[in-house]
């Protein structure tokens, strides 16, 4: 279980994904983007929009069940990306690097970018925006929802 939690709002994810696109835009023209599902779908859409890239492929890797990590399994390979030449891989986070190693094996010539990176996995990616500690669990906006919380005065805490 994670020691710390970091909640990312939709606005923050959008800003960070746009910052990733800004960092990538001058590197080279990319033929397309490979989004790692599911977490990389939204950052990839934002990056694709900012870079005016229309070719989007996906690779589906199953690694987590809630907060429990398992062995990565490819459930859908990125057929249109070949060996990755000219492609940009986008994911929300690199944690231990387990998923990144699998994707790197499939697309060895692609440029790999994530929005967030943890120390154990950051060497697996070429570009990232924000580093978080290894013991931090990021709560992405698709994992949370705002809800009403009663004022303290109503709980009898006064």
Automatic annotation (TrEMBL):
Q: Which CDD domains match?
A: PRTases_typeI
User: What would you give as a GO molecular function for this chain, any one?
Assistant: xanthine phosphoribosyltransferase activity
* Location in or out of the cell: Cell membrane
Tell me the residue numbers annotated for binding xanthine.
95, 138
Q: Which cofactor does it need?
A: Mg(2+)
Residues that, per the record, bind GMP: 95-99, 137-138
Q: Keyword Membrane, does the record have it?
A: yes
Where, in this chain's numbering, is 5-phospho-alpha-D-ribose 1-diphosphate bound?
38-39, 91-99
Q: Which InterPro entries match?
A: PRTase-like (IPR029057), PRTase_dom (IPR000836), Xanthine_Guanine_PRibTrfase (IPR023747)
Instruction: State the membrane topology.
Output: Peripheral membrane protein
Which residues belong to any copy of the Phosphoribosyltransferase domain?
9-148
Catalysed reactions listed for this entry:
IMP + diphosphate = hypoxanthine + 5-phospho-alpha-D-ribose 1-diphosphate; GMP + diphosphate = guanine + 5-phospho-alpha-D-ribose 1-diphosphate; XMP + diphosphate = xanthine + 5-phospho-alpha-D-ribose 1-diphosphate
Question: Which pathway or pathways does this protein act in?
Answer: Purine metabolism; GMP biosynthesis via salvage pathway; GMP from guanine: step 1/1; Purine metabolism; XMP biosynthesis via salvage pathway; XMP from xanthine: step 1/1
PANTHER family per the UniProt record, alphabetical: XANTHINE PHOSPHORIBOSYLTRANSFERASE, XANTHINE-GUANINE PHOSPHORIBOSYLTRANSFERASE
Q: What is this protein called?
A: Xanthine-guanine phosphoribosyltransferase
Organism annotation = Acidiphilium iwatense
